[in-house]
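Hi F.,

I've been meaning to write this up properly since the lab meeting, where we talked about keeping a consistent format for the predictions we share between groups. The idea is simple: the sequence comes first, exactly as it goes in, then the C-alpha cells exactly as they come out, then a line or two of notes. No screenshots and no reformatting. I'm using this chain as the first example so we have something concrete to point to.
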Amino acid sequence: MYTAFQLAKKYIRYYFTASNGKGHGIHSPFVFQFVQEVLHGDFSPPVYDQIEQQRKKLLQNDQTIEVEDFGAGSGHLKYKIRKIKDIASTSLKPKKYASLLGRLVKHFSPETVTELGTSLGITTMYLAATGCKVATFEGSENIAEVARENFAENDFSDIKIITGPFEKTLPSFIAKNQKADFVFLDGNHKKKPTLEYFELFLKNADEHSIFVFDDIHWSEEMEAAWELVKQHEAVTLSIDLFFIGVVFLRKDFKIKQHFIIRY
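Output, unedited:
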C-alpha cells in the first residue's frame, strides 16, 4: 500500500494531467455521454439520504467485532478486534463514489450486479437502489452480519450476501451461470487474486458487461493489475477515475481506448 504522501503525489499528478472532467476534448461520443450523464448525472433518489443516515450511525457505533482479513487487509486497522465506527471510517466508499456506482447501475441498467467486498453494506445499498438483483461477497462473517442488519433496517431485503473466502465461494457462484452484467471488485487489493477474479467473471460476461475496479492506484500491485486489465484482449475501453477504474467489453469499439478523466 502506498503511503498517504505517495498517494497524494499520485493524485495531484492525475488531477493536472487527466482530461477535463466536463468532457471537453473527449472525441468518443460514448465517453462524452458517460461524462455528462454518469459522472455528472443528477440521479439521487430519496433512499440515498436514508443510506447516508445509516453511514452516520455506523460512524458512531462503538460496538466491537472480530474481523478476519482474507485479502490485502486494512491499510489502517492492523488488529482483529475492531470498533464498527473504525471499520466505517476506513473501509466505506465516500458518498461521491458510492453514488457514482449507483449512477452507473442506473444508466446502464444491468439485470444483475455482483460485488466483491461487502464491508458494512453502504455501497451495496447504493448499487441496489434501482431495484436490480444484487449478490455481494464478504469474507468476514461478523462484518457480513452487520451488513445484513443494515440491509434489513433500510428495507433492502433482496440483496444476497455470500460469506467466506472468495476462492471458495466465488467459483461455485460462477459455475451456476450467474451472468456477469455489472461487477464491482473491491474485495482483495492484491494483483494475483484481482486478475484471477476478473478472469473468472469473464467466463459469464458478454460485450455488454461492465467491470469496476476499486482503488486502482492503492499500491504498486493494484496499479500493475489495472495495467494488465487494460491490456486484456476482452477489454475495448477503460476509464481511469483514479480511485476507481471502469472497463467495457463492447465489440463496437474497433480500437482499444483508454481515458484518464478528472472526477
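Notes:
The chain has a mean pLDDT of 92.
Residues 212 and 246 are 5 Å apart (CA to CA).

If this format works for you, I'll send the rest the same way.

G.
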